[in-house]
Design brief:
The chain is α/β, with parallel strands linked by helices. The protein has one domain (about 1-265): Acetylglutamate kinase-like (Carbamate kinase). Helix content is about 45%, strand content about 15%. It contains eleven helices and eight strands. Bound molecules: adenosine-5'-diphosphate (ADP).
């Protein structure tokens, strides 16, 4: 465990995923205060010499707010269209705030199938490496919702972020959610839910603890976060689920504090 803690402290390539409920208000409008604090923390990590990929949800909510739509989009094409509208706005906010801290943001829109295809997979790795190592920029990733609906339908980018972490051989994946981590049952439904600080493998017992989401806009709940953990554990990437209500939690995790739920990976072979 000490060795893993030291690996996390020394993490050079970090993937951070923020859920819809973290970056948007319940009405879908961007949570500017929170995004600003998140950008400040990430900018500081980059200034320390680390490389950070940000996977962000929230485009549909922002698109919905922009169109003045007060109800949740019903159909998938409607969600795809609102994502296309919201993505521009969300990227504008990130790009503007990162520039204020002297950083360069880059937009990367991915579909899951790209990551199973040899040539495209290599193209994607090349782009990430160039963005991170040559240009020292911050890739901001989302599903390309115009052509793919997997993360819209189930996942809210949880599994996409794990696939990215595995692809670029990240040292750490942090999933920021609206909850402190994994409990033995959904604490929103059960007051006696027990917190689980460390998970060593995705057993049937762990899977049975996980429910979907109660959120107005988040889509994956704990189910898809556990699927993300499975990908990370196999790829040798430590993963932490923590509360996104305070982006400083990222610094606390990296400094070795016990915070959130840590999923201990299999040993990375390289
Ligand atoms: P995000 O948008 O941050 O990804 P989600 O709504 O998709 O958020 O997922 C987090 C939600 O998962 C929590 O708010 C909680 O209601 C739900 N959940 C279901 N089962 C569990 C569990 N066993 N432990 C913690 N949270 C759970």
């Amino acid at each position: 465990m000490t060795e893993l803690k030291n690996r996390i402290k020394a993490a050079n390539k970090i993937v951070i995923k923020v859920g819809t409920s973290t970056v948007t208000h319940p009405n879908g409008k961007p949570n500017i205060m929170l995004i600003e604090r998140l950008v400040r923390v990430i900018s500081n990590l980059v200034n320390q010499g680390r490389h950070v990929v940000l996977v962000t949800s929230g485009a549909i909510g922002v698109g919905r707010a922009k169109m003045g739509q007060d109800h949740k989009p019903a159909s998938i094409p409607e969600k795809q269209a609102l994502a296309a509208i919201g993505q521009v706005n969300l990227m504008y906010i990130y790009s503007k705030l990162f520039s204020e801290y002297g950083q360069t943001a880059a937009q990367v829109l991915l579909t899951r199938d790209v990551l199973d295809n040899g040539v495209r997979e290599q193209n994607t790795i090349n782009t990430f490496n160039t963005l991170l190592l040559q240009y020292n920029s911050i890739p901001i990733v989302n599903e390309n919702d115009t052509v793919s609906t997997e993360q819209i339908e189930f996942g809210d980018n949880d599994t996409l972020s794990a696939m990215v972490a595995a692809l670029i051989r990240a040292d750490l994946l942090i999933l920021l959610s609206d909850i402190d981590g994994l409990y033995d049952k959904d604490p929103k439904n059960s007051a006696d839910a027990r917190f689980i600080p460390t998970v060593y493998g995705i057993t049937d017992e762990i899977v049975s603890m996980c429910g979907g989401t109660n959120g107005n806009l988040g889509t994956g709940g704990m189910k898809t976060k556990i699927e993300a953990a499975r990908i990370c554990i196999d790829a040798g990437v430590p993963m932490v689920i923590a509360n996104g209500d305070d982006p400083e939690n990222i610094n606390r995790i990296i400094s070795g504090q016990e915070l959130g739920t840590l999923f201990v990976p299999h040993r990375k072979e390289d």
